Amino acid sequence: MNQWMKQLSSKFSWKKLAVSSVGLLTLMSIIAFAIYEVTKAEVTVEADDDSISTHTHASTVGEVLEEQDIDVTKHDYVEPPVDTEIKEEMSIEFKQAQKVVVSLDGELNKVWTTKQSVEGLLEELEIEVHKHDIVDPNLENSLNDVNVVKFNSAFQITVISDGEEKEVWTTSTTVADFLEKEKITLNKLDRVEPAEDEQLEGTGKVNVVRVEKVTDVVEETVNFGTVTKNDSSIDQGSEEVIQKGQEGKIEKQYEVVIEDGEEVSRDLVKENVVQESEDRILVVGTKKAAPKTVSRGSSSNSSSSASSSSGSWRSFTATAYSAFCNGCSGVTATGINLRENPGKNVIAVDPSVIPLGSRVEVKGYGTYIAGDTGGAIKGNKIDIFMPDKSKVQSFGRQSVQIRVLD
């Protein structure tokens, strides 16, 4: 019995020892676990829009992010840096970078950014946006789901169109694009300087020239000619118009080019004779007059003061006049219609010096009929009729030699 008791006691002690060992191990494990947990550092991870609080035995920031299954690339934003040693109550900020294509005035660039908005991206790229610049999408837009950000810087252009000059801000690259955006339409003949395919540059100028072609029909007169015929049945020095001249008419059609309201060219396209001109026919007498006889017994007083000087040259002051002078009727004192007989050689004289109807010779100019008078023609002064008004003006006042022929 005692022996059985000893055996039982021995077995019980062994079991008690075994149970005590297991409990000790369990306790030690609990203590070790508690110590492990207590020694963890508390770290907050701000990842994009999420905030994660965690306890970790990680030694660096990079290890903490790895524990959170956050893959870090070289373009991502991590603060503090990944190799920073972990400290209690540390805060880690992580922003994942995304790749965006940026078009800067048409030039494409691939960039990585952690910015959330278009505005933030442009600020990061140090691009200053002004009032007239174009940004697509808008500055306030999020970069999420955005593949391309377009930025076109505006510049000023002077545009001249339809008589108006103004300054315009534009982001256009070509003249054609600029005209389209400004809603300036070119008609078929219009042109623009520089040409539509030319590149625009800042502080440049675009000139729109409005061009039109019109047809102008003009009726012009054609001067008539003068045909002279000799007639032996008419006294020498006499003239007679047997056919008045008549001016002709011709119609001319011109193609006229007008630019911005001003005529720049005129080309004759065709002409049409509306009315033929008719020559003026003048008959000139060639019949010589019979010689005059003078009675020997006649008194010397019977001859006039003018006839006593026949044949001798005398000095006169000469001017000229036309049939169309101010106040002129075109008909002389002796009844000659100078407008109908522009080829008539007539001078105006002082009848007390040279009798009317006398035939006189003006040295250097030819033979004339003293057929007219004038209020200013007194003494040794004559006025020579000239059909051309321009020659009247150029004749002026001259000293001439005159002799009375008959």
TrEMBL record:
One of its GO terms (biological process) is peptidoglycan turnover. Residues 208-288 form the G5 domain. The keyword NADP does not apply. GO terms for cellular component: outer membrane. Gene3D superfamilies: Resuscitation-promoting factor rpfb, RlpA-like domain. CDD domains: 3D_containing_proteins (cd14667). GO terms for molecular function: hydrolase activity, hydrolyzing O-glycosyl compounds. SMART domains: G5. Keywords: Signal. Transmembrane segments: none annotated. It comes from the Bacteria. This is G5 domain-containing protein.
